[in-house]
Give the backbone structure.
Amino acid sequence: MDAIQRALDNFRASYNAEPTVVARAPGRVNLIGEHTDYNDGFVLPMALPFDTVIAARPAPGDQLSVASAGFGSAQFALADDPANTTQWARYVHAVGTMLSAEGHVAQPPAWEGVITTDIPPGASLSSSAALEVAAGLVYTSLAGVSLSPGQLARVGQRVENEVMGLPSGILDQLASAGSQVGQATLIDCRSLDVRTIAFPEDATIVVLDTGTRRELVESEYADRQATCAQAATLLGLDALRDATPDDIDRLASLDGAEQRHVDRARHVVNEDARTLEAVDAMEVGDLKRLGELMVQSHESLRDLYQVSGPALDAIVDAALQSPHCLGARMTGGGFAGGAIALVADDGEASVDVFCQELMGRYQAPPEQPAVAPTKLYPCQPSAGAGYVSM
Ligand code: GLA
């Protein structure tokens, strides 16, 4: 039973009524363009066929009451500081706070409801962004307001930046809010312009969940973001989006620049170029080139940006040994969680064979133990967030 059906069942069982609104928002993978979003650069995500779903109805008074299947329940008042709300409910609370801070809904309405999800949490598949986007859709529907995917995504990004303390970009939220079936989306993270790119029909993206987990907030994400901002300042630029390869060579000789500034900045400049080239490759159906660019991206994230990890490196190496695999790389923030493989789809069998062989070949590295089983999910680009009609 999928997350939509489970949400409906849970709502009916809890309230003995039909929900007023049912909103869904998917997880995502990023095909290429990693750690470029907060540098005003380019990303190329697609939505996954896994959703977080919220079924809700208006509640009297100012208390919100939400139950998340498998994760307990929470009550809070929107007038309170979301910092006082714990765990997953803080995201739901903070979306209400930020909708009002952004001026979209003066006083977000209280509601009650249930949450279900098919997105494996902590696997770099944007389960938090999906929760933010789904919650944004619920609040705005009950307030009678309609937001663009960009506006909805910005609310989620502010939740991460200002409430969760993660200086992340807009990749995850905009991928969840704005993706389309069968398409990858090129996002210009400076202008928020988006362009859909048809995903090749003769390929499948296989999500490779290593079962290792690491919270982004506790990771070195903030360090990478700060180092990039310093590198841009040293170069006299607004953001590394504006840097050229020559600038990176120049950076090395500037006062205050260290090797880490040069390495991180080189990754960002090359990754932006690779992302635009990946779009060209997809548009002419050159899967081989797309795969090569994905591999280069992984190597750069591993060696220059240093955000991969033993499990991600091991599963990418194991995937690349398959003759069916055209490219593989870590996806999302890094350190642990999920990677992706681009697999040639010459009939059902090649993807199945790839998955069987990889499960046999991949060994979890002893230095980074998994906390969940290794799982492989063959996926096609799926629909961005929206309402479920009943
Ligand atoms: C996480 C962040 C995104 C992005 C990626 C890396 O998923 O939430 O904003 O920076 O890492 O590309």
User: Anything to note?
Assistant: The chain has two domains: 3-197+383-387, 200-379. Residues 200-379 form a domain with the Alpha-Beta Plaits fold (CATH 3.30.70.890).
